[in-house]
Amino acid sequence: xxxxxxxxxxxxxxxxxxxxxxxxxxxxxxxxxxxxxxxxxxxxxxxxxxxxxxxxxxxxxxxxxxxxxxxxxxxxxxxxxxxxxxxxxxxxxxxxxxxxxxxxxxxxxxxxxxxxxxxxxxxxxxxxxxxxxxxxxxxxxxxxxxxxxxxxxxxxxxxxxxxxxxxxxxxxxxxxxxxxxxxxxxxxxxxxxxxxxxxxxxxxxxxxxxxxxxxxxxxxxxxxxxxxxxx
Length: 231
Hints:
Layout: H1 5-20, H2 36-48, H3 52-65, H4 70-75, H5 91-108, H6 120-126, H7 128-137, H8 142-145, H9 149-159, H10 162-177, H11 182-191, H12 204-216
Helix pairs in contact: 1-3, 2-6, 3-5, 7-10, 10-12
């Protein structure tokens, strides 16, 4: 039978986070140099959950030393490493290489400096509520669901807990604080799930600033719900 959520997280939870960082990226780590994906994982984790690095190193090394045997494969009680573009025979050595890089980072305290996200995984890990907002309310179907961008923002605010709205405002302000070029802000919006252009005449950063101001304003008040005549 498949692993329970508890067993999965206990043995493979942080290993899974490391592997997810390689979606759309090359697993081209060498003993001398970590890959772009691993640098992104280290940067984000060092600055948000530094204690998780030791768990990642342990789980990677344990999986490399003891890959699932025939019984666990037959029962489905194992973590399946997604395809990262490497031959199956090279996976164990690659996992050990990742563990060594993480161990070195922990022992030396060498962490990638703060910077704009460099991978799809890092964008979503750093700005999760913004990704939810953009992907859920500004997909390609937005013009069919809402009259305009303002209506979509109002719908999000109306249906979301104030704490989530506040978290979204913080993430938008943090993104703006990166002080990127407009082309990079456009890329960031796309990475985070936005499939429509900002409304004219706003640039991507201008629309983000406008949206943050709107989110911080009073919540829409549509009055009491209509009374239903039960007679």
